[in-house]
Design goal:
Layout: H1 8-11, H2 36-45
Length: 71
């Protein structure tokens, strides 16, 4: 299915997987794709040394028809 056609609950059925480009990433079962709000909350509640320095580069596309060449 195309991502834009899925509901949040449908997206939550997928698990995040490590990227093979980063061999130091370890697979972890049960990690869902977070919503944007969940990501913001995770970062703001983190006690990790560098959490307050996290910068996000968000790209939002609202018209899937304009991006058919990417599917």
């Amino acid at each position: 299915p195309l991502i834009y056609s899925l509901s949040v609950s449908e997206l939550k059925q997928f698990e995040c997987k490590p990227d093979s480009s980063f061999p130091e990433q370890l697979p972890t079962k049960g990690i869902e794709i977070p919503t944007l709000q969940e990501l913001f909350t995770l970062i703001s509640n983190s006690c990790h040394l560098h959490a307050k320095k996290v910068q996000l580069n968000l790209e939002i596309k609202r018209d899937p028809v304009s991006y058919t060449h990417l599917t």
